[in-house]
Amino acid sequence: MMAEKPKLHYFNGRGRMESIRWLLAAAGVEFEEKFLKSAEDLDKLRTDGSLMFQQVPMVEIDGMKLVQTKAILNYIASKYNLYGKDIKERALIDMYIEGMADLKEMIIPLFKTPPDQKDAKVALIKERTTNRYFPAFEKVLKSHGQDYLVGNRLSRADIHLVELLYEVEELDPNIIANFPLLKALKTRISNLPTVKKFLQPGSQRKPPANMKTTEEVRKIFKF
Ligand SMILES: N[C@@H](CCC(=O)N[C@@H](CS)C(=O)NCC(=O)O)C(=O)O
Asked: Mind telling me which InterPro entries this protein's record contains (predicted)?
């Protein structure tokens, strides 16, 4: 019997699920999505015992109901061979993606930042991107001259980084100009057939939050 498609439970927006969508798509895995539309939808998952910590993202995959974004990503990356060939490559990948996660943690809450604080938050993100994170990854690529961040082949590190490159580009399209190797990586990864498909309109990739989606999310999570 063919394995069932993974089923993603989240609201219809990026949030913490978007990296999971990217990773599955890049791995060429088809998935289904069940969107939470209301607080009742979330309560239902909670009362039926599907959410270990009463939180989403939750992904049904291979007979499991996985929660915790990192655990979900680790499973997918391991299953589809995107997590290095040995423990040293994995250590590098972990180190790189934790840096990316730190930057991502600054970007995720932006959608619910009050307007009077938003400029300052965006300025800090740009500053950190320009002076800390992008130089670090540019340096990695420069140090070995290879096409991918780790082990001379595609890994989750490349996929998570390219997702971030697109997000930062939405905040400021000029930052990447000073990082030619990151720019080349973005083009290279974007042209992989699976990623190319995901980047096309009509895919399961989610647009940036807007006022309407933010209102929906507020209702679901009651904040
Ligand atoms: N560490 C968890 C955090 C999950 C999380 O904060 N989920 C939010 C939605 S993005 C949620 O379910 N909030 C409701 C709650 O905490 O009760 C993860 O990475 O999956």
From this structure: Glutathione-S-Trfase_C-like, Glutathione-S-Trfase_C_sf, Glutathione_S-Trfase, Glutathione_S-Trfase_N, GST_alpha, GST_C, GST_superfamily, Thioredoxin-like_sf
